From TrEMBL:
Topology in the lipid bilayer: Peripheral membrane protein
Keywords for this protein: Bacterial flagellum, Cell membrane, Cell projection, Chemotaxis, Cilium, Flagellar rotation, Flagellum, Membrane
NCBIfam families tied to this protein: fliM_switch
Species annotation: Candidatus Kurthia intestinigallinarum
Name the UniProt record assigns to this protein: Flagellar motor switch protein FliM
Entries under InterPro entries matching the protein: CheC-like_sf, Flag_FliM, FliN-like_C, SpoA-like_sf
SUPFAM superfamilies, A to Z: CheC-like, Surface presentation of antigens (SPOA)
Protein family: Belongs to the FliM family.
Highest taxon, organism lineage: Bacteria
Record-linked Pfam families: FliM, FliMN_C
Flagellar motor switch protein FliN-like C-terminal domain sequence ranges: 254-323
Gene Ontology annotations for the cellular component aspect, listed alphabetically: bacterial-type flagellum basal body; plasma membrane
Protein location: Bacterial flagellum basal body; Cell membrane
Length: 332
């Protein structure tokens, strides 16, 4: 829709034409009515709405933040990853847009069908590899010459990185990404039909002094079962959804098993350190609490009840009289 946005000079010229009478509002209205036909490219079928694309953008912005933290810890270097764009294009167009020789991780995402691709620009890939091997993070090798050891190192790095995708997707689907293949030539990928619509999320990536792109390619067939979950309505409902009876019962059970400190406070007093040091068995300490007044019961050091002292089967006990309410105590 970029062609529909007017520049400031075009806006000024349009206002000038209206003010001088060269163009009237009626002429503009008639011209607008004649532009009801829109060009549609059947080779670029739009399978996702703008609302769903925005949801995918939010999800992968969170994923980018998680990746930044993950790679920073693994590489011990400055890392910055941000979402550059989210587009829906034919799979063939995605293959043509990436380098002929690059690093491509193919993931299964059960329980969803199909695969997800993560394509890493060779500059970024070798900068990461150099950092993992103890170097400064420079890019100097060819991806197609990866040794078995280098492949294993890169596989472990990116396999663990997709744990972050599981976390980012948690609100829309419970996936379990599994790395199934490491490929360097995109022409060998025969996942889906060339005309199948895919969502491509492109990330601007900076590793130390090296920059490049990381692309995630998600075929429509993978997202199709969870497309309803990408709507704003679903996100709002998920934020306000009440717990099911099973969840409530589990929460209640966990609360019942929780342990808290309960104390019955007989009273308090102040004595000198000297008196405290010379206390002996049989000494009496006078408290500020009258024997006829109820005791205070504290739960985790917060006053919650009043009680009266007594005995149960020759053991000291207290009987709760009433609950204490008020202030911030109830909120805690």
């Amino acid at each position: 829709m970029a062609g529909d946005v007017l520049s400031q000079s075009e806006i000024d010229a349009l206002l000038s034409a209206l003010s001088t009478g060269e163009m009237s509002a009626e002429d503009m209205k008639k011209e607008e009515e004649t532009k009801k036909v829109k060009v549609y490219d059947f080779k670029r079928a739009l399978r996702f709405s703008k609302d769903q694309i925005r949801s995918l953008t939010r999800i992968h912005e969170n994923f980018a933040r998680l990746l930044t933290t993950y790679f920073s810890a693994q590489l011990r270097s400055y890392v910055q990853i941000t979402v550059a764009s989210v587009d829906q294009i034919p799979f063939e167009e995605f293959i043509r847009s990436i380098p002929n020789i690059t690093l491509i991780n193919v993931f299964d995402v059960p329980p969803l069908d199909g695969n997800i691709l993560m394509e890493i620009n060779p500059n970024i890939a070798y900068s990461m590899l150099d950092r993992l091997m103890g170097g400064a993070g420079t890019s100097h090798s060819n991806v197609d010459n990866l040794t078995e050891i280098e492949q294993k190192i890169m596989t472990n790095l990116f396999e663990r990185s997709f744990d972050n995708l599981r976390e980012a997707w948690a609100n829309i689907a419970d996936i379990d990404p599994i790395l199934t293949e490491l490929e360097v030539n995109p022409q060998f990928l025969q996942m889906i039909s060339p005309n199948e619509t895919v969502v491509v999320i492109s990330f601007n990536s900076i590793i130390g002094e090296t920059s490049g792109m990381i692309n995630i390619c998600i075929p429509h067939v993978v997202l199709e079962p969870i497309v309803p979950n990408l709507s704003v309505r679903y996100w709002m409902q998920s934020n306000t959804r009440e717990n099911s009876p099973e969840q409530k019962a589990r929460i209640e059970q966990n609360i019942r098993r929780s342990e808290v400190d309960v104390t019955a406070e007989l009273g308090s007093t102040n004595i000198s350190i000297e008196d405290f040091l010379f206390l002996q068995q049989g000494d009496v300490i006078q408290l500020d609490q009258n024997i006829t007044n109820p005791l205070t019961i504290k739960v985790d050091n917060i006053p919650k009840f009043t009680a009266q002292p007594g005995k149960v089967k020759k053991k000291m006990a207290v009987q709760v009289i009433e609950s204490l309410r008020g202030g911030d105590d109830d909120d805690e």
